[in-house]
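User: Second chain of the day. Same drill as before.
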Amino acid sequence: MVFKFKIISDQVGDFVLHINADANHTFLQLHKAIQHACRFDQSELATFFMADEEWDKILEIPMHTKGVASKLALRSMKEVKLGELLKEQELNLIYVFDIRNQKSLYLRIKEIEPEKQLRAPLLVQKIGNTPMQHSFNEDDSDLVSDQDLANQIDYSDFGELEDLDLIYGETEEVN
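Assistant: Same format as last time:
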């Protein structure tokens, strides 16, 4: 059984992903497919939520269950297969890809093909600009072009300005 997901963002209006995933794939495999398609930093924590028609969170599927205080948590993404929880079209999922800033993507099953199977989740189509995973300051836009994303990744290794004081020590202002 193959689930055909349409994935949108509430922060970037023109962003749409279409990903197909098999019922035997885990939520971790779907997470990795979204991360790869969006070029997100895969070291960051993320979580899925099953949601009702009004997008209210019902059940959490976190990356790791250790330390998760949520009463909504079931099992980790690695343990739960999509077919265990997803049974019908028009089902809603919320994918929180930046937990600190509560940035999310919204998934809806648009179609289910009962007779089909996939070896790995498949990116079918990507439209528009990818939402930024991290906000560096209040002036940052939620849009990121491919070049901006490459620059963001290149310069992210330098750390925050405060961290430089730890490396070089306190500096004095020169008048």
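Residues 137-141, 155-161 have pLDDT under 50 and may be disordered.

User: Great, on to the next one.
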